[in-house]
Design a protein that fits this description.
It contains 5 helices and 15 strands. By secondary structure, the chain is α+β, with helices and mostly antiparallel strands. It folds into 2 domains: about 110 residues, no CATH class; about 120 residues, Immunoglobulin-like, CATH 2.60.40.1230. The strands form 5 sheets. It has a 5-stranded antiparallel β-sheet, with no helix packed on it. It is elongated and about 105 Å long. The termini are far apart. The structure holds zinc ion. Zinc ion binds next to strand 4 and helix 3.
């Protein structure tokens, strides 16, 4: 039976991309080391197929072409026992899980590389730093207010809009749009990030995070956030309110950002708007 094997180059690249560590997060074993012959290397890992190389094999995908089956995308570097394990119990190790292992192992190796380049002693724990980026605003006219006086003209009630020296009173909807960026400026994963609004002010809209999530080292996520204020007043008053980069009604906003590190220890960053400034602290 034809097997769509990886090329030697693909096998080597898969191993090198994860520093020859097993990609199973529960294992992480070294798979490369010295041989008794000083000119040789011992390798106890292998480039395993995510979708099997031949018909009937574990996670075999009939839709895949021969080239896709032997491409680097279809491989994951594992130690020999983990490679055995994922094939003997394919149902417990589906394609999506193996792809997740691979992505995680590669991201972690990249973080290690970056840590070395930056010559910084890595902070053992993840640290999430939020940032509020203004992306736009709207001041929408939602119609004339009933507070404008009424007169009778030709037997019909007419609302006087801005008659005399008074400005018309309008229903305004004032919106401030932000991107709430959460940066992971550490070399550790921040897992299952949760955001809770615990202050005296709240966003009128804050995009939700998926329940299961992960912000890899040196990356960030952005969530849409909005403040909405409705007033019934003149455009002069509306303009004055809209003029603020951070709305006055945001004063007292307090977000509790919780996350876990790879050892399941919990961490918290607090973000607050205080005296028109955004500040954050790690607990
Ligand atoms: Zn392993």
């Amino acid at each position: 039976m034809a097997r769509d094997n990886f090329t030697t180059e693909t096998v080597n690249s898969l191993g090198k991309r994860v520093g020859f560590l097993c990609s199973n997060p529960g294992c992480g074993k070294h798979t490369s080391g010295p041989h008794s012959n000083p000119a040789k290397v011992t390798i106890i890992g292998e480039a395993a197929h995510i979708c099997a190389a031949s018909v009937g094999g574990p996670r075999y995908d009939v839709q895949m072409s021969r080239d896709e089956r032997r491409s680097i995308e279809n491989g994951i570097w594992l130690c020999s026992s983990c490679s055995d394990l994922i094939d003997k119990d394919a149902d417990s190790y589906p394609v999506a899980l193996l792809k997740q292992w691979k992505a995680k192992a590669e991201a972690s190796m990249l973080a290690n590389l970056m840590g070395i380049q930056a010559k910084t002693k890595s902070n053992k724990k993840p640290y999430l730093e939020p940032d509020l980026i203004w992306t736009g605003g709207q001041r929408l006219n939602r119609g004339y207010s009933h507070k404008n006086p009424i007169t009778i003209e030709n037997g019909v009630a007419v609302r006087v809009i801005g008659g005399g020296s008074s400005l018309p009173i309008i229903h305004w909807e004032i919106k401030w749009k932000f991107s709430l960026a959460i940066h992971n400026n550490s070399s550790h994963h921040a897992i299952n990030v949760g955001i809770e609004s615990i202050g005296n002010a709240h966003f009128s809209l804050l995009e939700k995070l998926p329940k299961i999530n992960n912000i890899p080292p040196f990356s960030s996520i952005e969530l849409k956030a909005e403040f909405l204020q409705r007033i019934e007043d003149t455009h002069k008053v509306a303009d004055k309110i809209f003029d603020h980069y951070i709305p006055e009604l945001a004063e007292g906003l307090k977000l509790k950002i919780d996350y876990l590190d790879e050892d399941r220890n919990s961490h918290t960053t607090i973000m607050e708007i205080f005296e028109n400034q955004m500040i954050h602290t790690k607990l």
